[in-house]
Design goal:
Layout (H helix, E strand, L loop, with lengths): L1 H17 E4 L2 E4 L6 H8 L3 E10 L4 H6 L7 H13 L4 E13 L2 E4 L1 H4 L4 E5 L5 E3 L1 E6 L4 E5 L10 E2 L10 E6 L7 E12 L9 E4 L11 E4 L3 E9 L7 E5 H13 L6 E2 L2 E5 L2 H6 L8 E6 L4 H5 L6 E5 L2 E2 L3 H9 L6 E8 L2 E8 L1 E2 L11 E3 L4 E5 L2 H7 L7 E6 L4 H4 L7 E5 L2 E2 L3 H9 L6 E8 L2 E8 L2
Parallel strand pairs: 10-15
Antiparallel strand pairs: 1-2, 3-4, 3-6, 4-5, 5-9, 6-7, 8-9, 11-12, 11-14, 12-13, 13-16, 14-15, 15-16, 17-24, 18-19, 19-20, 20-21, 20-22, 22-23, 25-26, 26-27, 27-28, 28-29, 28-30, 30-31
Length: 465
C-alpha cells in the first residue's frame, strides 16, 4: 500500500513539475534548455587565453611628490633602487577567454590582449597555440586573434543579439579565475544598458555568473548560438554582468580581418539626453531624440546646416529614442554616404542632408556622456546605472569609468569608480569642467586630482608625458 502511495505521489509531482500554469501562460519543463548537452557541444569552441607583457618600473616617487631637480639625491636614490630591483622590467601575466569563429580566427576582448608581448591559446582538449593579433577595436573593446592549426577547428555559431528577449535563458563558458571550461547559466536581465564605458554602450545584462577571466568568452542562447561577448563585471555586485551584443561584433569583424582596424562614420556634434524638462521647453511631446549641444567647425554637421539647439529625431530613416543610439548609427554609416537627418528646430520638424566623414584618431565621437583624455582616463557624468554599477553614495559629479592599462592615470593610483571632485583646486561638477581643466595642462606639468572613493577622500598626482 505504501509503495502504491509513493508511486501516486511521484506521478503527481511529475505532473505538477511538467506544467505550471500562470494566467495566460503555460510553462513546460520541455522548454528548459538541455544545459548538459549544450555544454558538451559548445565547450570545444571556447578557448582560454593567457598573455604576458613586459612592465617597466614606474617612477612612483616622482609622480606622487612632484618634479624634482636632476640634482636631487633622493630622486637619484629611488631611481637606482628601482633599476636594481627590475633593471629590465618584469613579466605581467593575465588570463581571459575567447571563442573560435572560423578558420582559426578567435574573438575576445581587446583588454584581454592589450599590450601583450606573448599570447597563448589553450583548447578544451589541452592543445596550445601561439596567437597573433589580426585586428583590434578599442572603442568596442574587441580583438580578433589568429592561430594556425593544420586540422579543422570547432567553431561557435554566431546568433542574432537583436532577437534575444529579456528573461531568455543564456549560458556563459569561460576561464574565471583561471578555472578552465567553467559553465554558468542564467537569463537575460536587460538589454541596451549604457554603463559609461564609451560612446557605443549597448550592453546585454545577465545574471549568469561572470568573473575575472570570463572576459572575451561567449554568452550563448538556448540554441547554442553566441549572442554576446562577456566583458564587464560590477565590483562587489552579484548577478550583474554585461556582454557586448554579438551583432556589434559581426558588423566590424570583416574590417578587422582585412585591415586590422575599424573605420567609422563621423558627424561632428556634441549631444545630450533630452530630459522631460528639456522636451517641454523645446515643445517636444516626449523624451526622445538627441539634443545638439555643440557643432564642430568644418564638420559634416556644420556643412549640412545642423545647429546648436536642434533635436535630432531621425537619422537615415531610423528614429532616435535614446541619445546613445545616434552614436552607434553614425559610427555604422559608410563614409561619404549622404544621409537625411530629421530635426526639431524652433518647434517645427525639418530635414537636412549631411555627408558622413571618416572618424579620425583623436576626434571625439557623437556623444556627450563619456570622454577619454590624454591621461588614458575615461570619465562620465553620473547616471543611475553608474551609481548602481559602482555602488556610489553620490548622485552627481564626474566618475572614472575606464582606464587604459598604460595610461598615466593608472600609474597614479586612480581606479574605476573614483569620483573626481577637483583638479588643481578647481571644482569639477560636469564633463565640461573636467575637459577644460585637463586641456589647460601641458607636457611636463603635474596634474593633481582630489577624489572621493567610497567614504574616503584622497589626492593623487601625475606628470603629463
Amino acid at each position: 500500500m505504501r509503495r502504491v502511495a509513493v508511486c501516486i505521489l511521484s506521478v503527481l509531482q511529475a505532473a505538477i513539475l511538467a506544467t505550471i500554469v500562470i494566467p495566460g501562460t503555460t510553462w513546460a519543463m520541455e522548454s528548459l534548455p538541455d544545459f548538459v548537452e549544450l555544454a558538451k557541444r559548445l565547450k570545444p569552441s571556447v578557448v582560454n587565453i593567457s598573455t604576458a607583457k613586459t612592465v617597466k618600473p614606474q617612477r612612483q616617487f616622482q609622480r606622487h611628490f612632484g618634479n624634482h631637480s636632476t640634482n636631487d639625491p633622493f630622486q637619484d636614490f629611488f631611481e637606482r633602487y628601482l633599476d636594481e630591483m627590475h633593471p629590465r622590467g618584469y613579466k605581467q601575466r593575465s588570463l581571459g577567454s575567447g571563442f573560435i569563429i572560423d578558420g582559426g580566427y578567435i574573438l575576445t576582448n581587446n583588454h584581454v590582449v592589450d599590450g601583450a608581448d606573448e599570447i597563448m591559446v589553450k583548447m578544451a582538449d589541452n592543445r596550445e597555440f601561439k596567437a597573433e593579433i589580426k585586428g583590434r577595436d578599442e572603442r568596442l573593446d574587441l580583438a580578433l586573434l589568429k592561430i594556425n592549426a593544420k586540422e579543422t577547428l570547432p567553431t561557435a555559431q554566431l546568433g542574432d543579439s537583436d532577437a534575444i528577449q529579456v528573461g531568455e535563458w543564456v549560458m556563459a563558458i569561460g576561464n574565471p579565475f583561471g578555472l578552465a571550461e567553467t559553465v554558468t547559466a542564467g537569463i537575460i536581465s536587460a538589454k541596451g544598458r549604457v554603463i559609461g564605458s564609451g560612446p557605443y554602450d549597448d550592453y546585454i545584462q545577465t545574471d549568469a555568473s561572470i568573473n575575472p577571466g570570463n572576459s572575451g568568452g561567449p554568452l550563448f542562447n538556448s540554441h547554442g548560438e553566441v549572442v554576446g561577448i562577456n566583458t564587464v563585471i560590477v565590483a562587489g555586485g552579484q548577478g550583474i554582468g554585461f556582454a557586448i551584443p554579438i551583432n556589434l561584433a559581426k558588423s566590424i569583424i570583416p574590417q578587422l580581418k582585412e585591415s586590422g582596424k575599424v573605420t567609422r562614420g563621423w558627424l561632428g556634434v556634441s549631444i545630450q539626453q533630452v530630459t522631460a524638462e528639456l522636451a517641454k521647453s523645446f515643445g517636444l511631446g516626449s523624451e526622445k531624440g538627441a539634443l545638439v549641444s555643440g557643432v564642430l567647425p568644418g564638420s559634416p554637421a556644420e556643412k549640412g546646416g545642423l545647429k546648436t539647439g536642434d533635436i535630432i529625431l531621425e537619422f537615415d530613416g531610423k528614429k532616435i529614442q535614446e541619445t546613445s543610439e545616434l552614436s552607434r548609427m553614425v559610427a555604422a554609416t559608410s563614409v561619404n554616404k549622404k544621409v537625411t537627418v530629421t530635426i526639431l528646430r524652433d518647434g517645427r520638424e525639418q530635414k537636412v542632408t549631411v555627408v558622413i566623414d571618416r572618424l579620425k584618431d583623436g576626434v571625439k565621437e557623437e556623444q556627450g556622456e563619456a570622454v577619454q583624455d590624454k591621461l588614458g582616463l575615461t570619465v562620465s557624468e553620473l547616471t543611475k546605472e553608474l551609481v548602481e554599477r559602482f555602488q556610489l553614495k553620490e548622485s552627481t559629479g564626474v566618475v572614472v569609468t575606464d582606464l587604459k592599462s598604460d595610461g598615466l592615470a593608472q600609474e597614479s593610483s586612480i581606479v574605476e569608480g573614483d569620483i573626481i571632485k577637483e583638479i588643481d583646486g578647481r571644482p569639477i561638477a560636469t564633463l565640461k569642467d573636467y575637459e577644460k581643466a585637463v586641456a589647460d595642462h601641458k607636457k611636463g606639468q603635474i596634474i593633481r586630482f582630489f577624489l572621493k572613493r567610497g567614504g574616503n577622500s584622497l589626492y593623487v598626482a601625475a606628470t603629463l608625458d
